[in-house]
Amino acid sequence: MVDREERLQDFIDRCRQEGLKITPQRVAVYEILLNSYNHPTVEEIYDEVKKRYPFVSLATVYRTVETLEQMGLAKKVCYWGSSARYDANIDEHHHLICVKCGAIRDIYMEEDLSIPSELEGFRTEGYSVNIYGLCPECREKAQPTS
Ligand SMILES: [Zn+2]
Ligand SMILES: [Zn+2]
């Protein structure tokens, strides 16, 4: 992953280019997303931003996350049964998802699925694999204590 400072600077530069207002709150949204590994929801990001900027609005956080997504700096992790979660890791990677606590961990796999460039009339652009299971913490809890 590229250096965080570099990514933040990149975001600020691109906001400038596109004429978007750069506020410390907006920068904080991206910074928090870059520093979290568990793919937070917008609400979780909001809770963190609020600790630094108590008057930030949820709408601002939503808009900033949307902007980041449009700029290709963040990705939405689609996953059933939960609100959309976000990822600042835009490298090609896959996810291990705990069906119990909802933890999402990034994994990199050697296997190449060799997806054809065209499928059922779609021009394919990439793929991401979600692997479901129990995380180590939940496995431990599931074990009978004797
Ligand atoms: Zn778990
Ligand atoms: Zn991820």
Written account of the structure:
- The protein has 146 residues and is an alpha+beta fold.
- The protein folds into two domains: 4-77, Arc Repressor Mutant, subunit A (Orthogonal Bundle); 92-142, Ferric-uptake regulator, C-terminal dimerisarion domain (Dna Ligase, domain 1).
- 39% of the residues lie in helices and 16% in strands.
- It has five helices and seven strands, in the order H-H-H-H-E-E-E-E-E-E-E-H.
- It has helices at residues 4-17, 24-35, 42-52, 58-70, 136-142; strands at 75-77, 85-87, 94-98, 104-107, 118-119, 122-123, 130-133.
- The strands form three sheets. The protein has a three-stranded mixed beta sheet with strand order 4-3-7, with no helix packed on it.
- A hairpin with a 5-residue loop joins strand 3 (94-98) and strand 4.
- The longest helix has 14 residues, at 4-17.
- The radius of gyration is 18 Å and the shape is globular.
- The model has no long low-confidence stretch (mean pLDDT 90).
- Bound molecules: zinc ion (2 copies).
- Residues 98, 100-101, 103, 135, 137-138 line the site of one zinc ion.
